């Protein structure tokens, strides 16, 4: 079969004409995009453009007003498809949402217990593995409140990855972290994504870091998708708003250096 | 306009009552969701029950002491001071024991439950549980509801026993009542029907208190406020509604069983 005519793999996630509003304010007006399998898609945009709302609509924490969503070609309007998406995906919350009355080990164990597949021995092994990979094994019996901000973020990622999901949603994974830790978090996402092969959807404000690790960029503005394409195209885009944003960042860096 | 507002208020209260009923049903139905039911039950019994033993013991001792004192004073005026044991035991078993014990547990454990769930709501921990495909109602409130069926009757029994002993101390040690006549009156006054009413009330109060406090914490975000203020409102509503529900249910059960 000619490769050019071969049916391509359906995107892991497809969103069509999504709308969502609160009271009088329409946050998402007409959002359509696809998330190709194995990619890192970063959703960028100014504050208040509905990036986190979009993510929460996709996973079902918020109900969209209209539009269609598909997981591997199946409509998420069907409850069995939504359950399948939940089982195959994980979500890293902006403020981590760690279970504060559970230890680090218990936080990571809970998704495995909830899934119920495998034996307690296998769960323990998986928990030890993921804690070791994220350098948290020494903190296994500590509580989230006893950890530093960076460790809490790593714990949130460990909890998300312990079930070996095929799709991981990151909502502002670097919120509240210093620049060094921000770089470390993006490097960690990129490294883990390469090792484990999951698809990642990342909502972030950190344009420079996102451009380095992402295969696609989605730029939201006023509830609409203003840019959807490869990261390389975003860097050379002649869209006025994107140019202005890039110029602002460049000016800020120059000012900081001087 | 006034009638319109009354109508809207009534509808909103009915809607809240419906949501509370659904919440309680889901909590009991999905109690196994998330696994580790045994440890959750044990923890719930400890938090609702064991931690409340000191306050129950202290309040019941003083309740018995006051009943003995007042009973001696009132009954002596009618030449019926030999009935002190009957007065103290029946008052505590049929009425004061279940009501005061439930109010004490609501004040200590109920408020703690509402605050804990309210914080878990405001820090997105409940959303995280939902995304793990766990029923948050069953996981967070289910075990506590079942534990309340054990804890409230047990603590009420403790309340009655310590209270009757307090009546003896007040009437027969500090005042010149005959101890043999006191215990004989207690023994002859209490019947199986009284004990049944006592334990039935305790179990009903336990379910009402626990489900109302859990519901308020779980839905802290619906108060129209956010963060710490929402948690505060949920905690206050939990204890106020629990207290009203305890007294209303007390009247209904008493009227039904008399």
Keywords:
heterodimer; A: 258 residues; alpha/beta; Rossmann fold; 9 helices; 10 strands; globular; disordered N terminus; B: 258 residues; mainly alpha; 84% helix
Describe this structure in words.
- The complex is a heterodimer of chains A (258) and B (258).
- With 258 residues, chain A is of the alpha/beta class.
- Chain A has one domain (10-99, 166-257): Rossmann fold (3-Layer(aba) Sandwich), CATH 3.40.50.
- Chain A contains nine helices and ten strands.
- Chain A has helices at residues 51-59, 79-88, 104-115, 120-133, 149-161, 179-196, 207-213, 231-236, 240-257; strands at residues 13-22, 25-35, 40-45, 66-71, 74-75, 89-92, 167-171, 199-203, 216-221, 224-230.
- In chain A, strands 6-7-8-3-9-10 form a six-stranded mixed beta sheet, with helices on both faces.
- In chain A, strand 1 and strand 2 form a beta hairpin.
- In chain A, helix 3 (104-115) runs parallel beside helix 5.
- In chain A, 38% of the residues are buried.
- Chain B has 258 residues and is an all-alpha fold.
- Chain B has one domain.
- Chain B is 84% helix and 0% strand.
- Chain B contains nine helices and no strands.
- Chain B has helices at 2-29, 37-48, 53-77, 84-122, 125-131, 136-173, 179-189, 192-218, 227-257.
- The radius of gyration of chain B is 21 Å and the shape is elongated.
- Chain B starts with a helix and ends with a helix.
Number of helices of chain B: 9
Radius of gyration of CA atoms of chain B, rounded to a whole number: 21 Å
Whole-number count of domains of chain B: 1
List how many beta strands of chain B DSSP finds: 0
- Give the termini separation of chain B: 43 Å
- Unreliable spans of chain A are 1-6
Q: Which structural class matches the secondary elements of chain A?
A: alpha/beta
Estimate what percentage of residues of chain A fall within beta strands.
Answer: 15-25%
**Total of domains of chain A:** 1
Looking at this structure, what is the CATH superfamily of chain A? P-loop containing nucleotide triphosphate hydrolases
* SSE run of chain B: HHHHHHHHH
Instruction: Based on the coordinates given, report the CATH architecture of chain A.
Output: 3-Layer(aba) Sandwich
**Oligomeric state:** heterodimer
What gross morphology of chain A would you assign? globular
Which word captures the global form of chain B? elongated
Average pLDDT confidence of chain B is 92
Helical content class of chain A: 40-55%
Helix content of chain B: over 70%
Number of helices of chain A: 9
The helix-strand sequence of chain A is: EEEHEEHEHHHEHEHEEHH
């Amino acid at each position: 079969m000619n490769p050019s005519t071969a049916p391509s793999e359906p995107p892991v996630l497809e969103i069509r004409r999504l709308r969502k509003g609160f009271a009088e304010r329409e946050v998402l007006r007409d959002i359509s995009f696809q998330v190709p399998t194995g990619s890192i898609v970063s959703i960028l945009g100014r504050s208040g453009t509905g990036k986190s709302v979009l993510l929460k609509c996709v996973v079902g924490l918020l109900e969209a007003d209209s539009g269609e969503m598909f997981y591997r070609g199946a409509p998420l309007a069907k409850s069995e498809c939504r359950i399948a998406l939940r089982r195959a995906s994980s979500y890293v919350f902006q403020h981590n949402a760690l279970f504060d009355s559970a230890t680090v080990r218990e936080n990571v164990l809970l998704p495995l217990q909830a899934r119920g597949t495998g034996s307690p021995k296998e769960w323990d092994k998986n928990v030890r593995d993921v804690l070791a990979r994220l350098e948290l094994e020494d903190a296994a019996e500590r509580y989230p409140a006893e950890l530093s901000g960076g460790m809490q973020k790593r714990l949130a990622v460990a909890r998300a990855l312990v079930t070996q999901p095929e799709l991981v949603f990151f909502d502002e994974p670097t919120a509240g972290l210093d620049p060094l830790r921000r770089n470390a978090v993006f490097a960690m996402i990129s490294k883990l994504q390469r090792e484990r092969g999951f698809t990642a959807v990342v909502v972030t404000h950190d344009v420079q870091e996102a451009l380095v690790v992402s295969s696609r960029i989605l730029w939201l503005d006023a509830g609409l998708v203003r840019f959807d394409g490869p990261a390389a195209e975003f860097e050379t885009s002649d869209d006025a708003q994107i140019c202005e944003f890039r110029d602002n960042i460049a000016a800020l860096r120059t000012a900081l250096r001087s | 306009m006034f009638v319109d507002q009354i109508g809207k208020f009534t509808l909103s209260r009915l809607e809240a009552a419906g949501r509370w009923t659904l919440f309680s049903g889901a909590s009991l139905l999905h109690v196994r969701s998330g696994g580790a039911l045994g440890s959750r039950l044990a923890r719930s019994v400890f938090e609702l029950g064991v931690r409340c033993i000191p306050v129950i013991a202290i309040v019941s001792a003083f309740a018995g002491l006051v009943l003995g004192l007042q009973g001696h004073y009132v009954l002596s005026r009618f030449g019926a001071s030999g009935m002190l044991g009957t007065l103290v035991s029946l008052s505590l078993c049929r009425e004061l024991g279940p009501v005061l014990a439930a109010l004490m547990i609501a004040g200590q454990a109920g408020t703690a439950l509402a605050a804990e769930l309210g914080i878990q709501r405001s820090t997105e921990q409940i959303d995280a549980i939902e995304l793990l495909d766990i029923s948050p109602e069953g996981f967070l409130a289910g075990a506590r509801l079942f534990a309340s069926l054990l804890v409230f009757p047990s603590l009420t029994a403790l309340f009655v026993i310590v209270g009757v002993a307090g009546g003896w101390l007040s009437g027969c040690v500090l005042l010149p009542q005959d101890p043999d006549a006191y215990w004989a009156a207690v023994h002859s006054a209490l019947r199986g029907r009284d004990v049944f009413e006592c334990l039935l009330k305790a179990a009903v109060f336990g379910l009402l208190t626990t489900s109302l406090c859990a519901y308020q914490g779980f839905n802290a975000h619906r108060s129209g406020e956010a963060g710490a203020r929402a948690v505060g409102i949920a905690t206050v509503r939990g204890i106020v509604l629990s207290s009203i529900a305890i007294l209303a249910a007390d009247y209904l059960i008493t009227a039904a069983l008399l």
